[in-house]
């Protein structure tokens, strides 16, 4: 796929996630989708479970795109997320605090679908803000 097509697919993904349209977002994943991200169960339904957990844990969650990079096979974005941590999120028990964290997602694209995913997230900052480890 072209660089612009991959960027457009990423934008569609972002728009669907922000609007909490998980059915639409999951439709952009290949049936053989694999996420290498810790905490995400296997396959497209694992992605749905992850976002349902995130939306429940951060009811006022918002995400901002900071940067997008793409080539003919991959698209990556650098994002900032924030919200009030009012429910269990992965290993973080609810803290009631407003958390801000950044992450980078990398997606491999085939036939206008996401087929593979990696993520790097600043979980250390989340843990500090949630009070699980001492702050600076």
Descriptive account of the structure:
With about 140 residues, the chain is of the alpha+beta class. It has one domain: Nuclear Transport Factor 2, Chain: A, CATH 3.10.450. About 30% of the residues lie in helices and about 35% in strands. It has helices at about 5-20, 20-25, 45-55, 125-130; strands spanning about 30-35, 60-70, 75-85, 100-110, 115-120. The protein has a five-stranded mixed sheet with strand order 1-5-4-3-2. The protein starts with a helix and ends in a 6-residue tail after the last helix. The model has no long low-confidence stretch (mean pLDDT about 95).
How would you briefly describe this protein structure?
The chain has a 5-stranded mixed beta sheet with strand order 1-5-4-3-2. The mean pLDDT is 94. It has helices at residues 3-18, 22-26, 43-57, 123-130; strands at residues 29-35, 62-70, 74-84, 98-110, 113-121.
């Amino acid at each position: 796929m072209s660089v612009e097509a991959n960027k457009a697919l990423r934008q569609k993904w972002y728009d669907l996630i922000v609007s909490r349209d998980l059915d639409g977002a999951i439709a952009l994943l290949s049936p053989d989708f694999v996420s290498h991200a810790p905490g995400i169960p296997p396959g497209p339904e694992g992605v749905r479970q992850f976002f349902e957990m995130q939306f429940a844990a951060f009811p006022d969650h918002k995400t901002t795109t900071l940067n997008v990079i793409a080539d003919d096979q991959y698209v990556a974005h650098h994002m900032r997320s924030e919200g009030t941590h009012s429910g269990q999120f992965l290993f973080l028990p609810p803290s009631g605090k407003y958390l801000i964290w950044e992450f980078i997602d990398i997606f491999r694209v085939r036939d206008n679908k996401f087929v593979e995913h990696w993520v790097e997230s600043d979980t250390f900052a989340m843990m500090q803000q949630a009070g699980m480890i001492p702050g600076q």
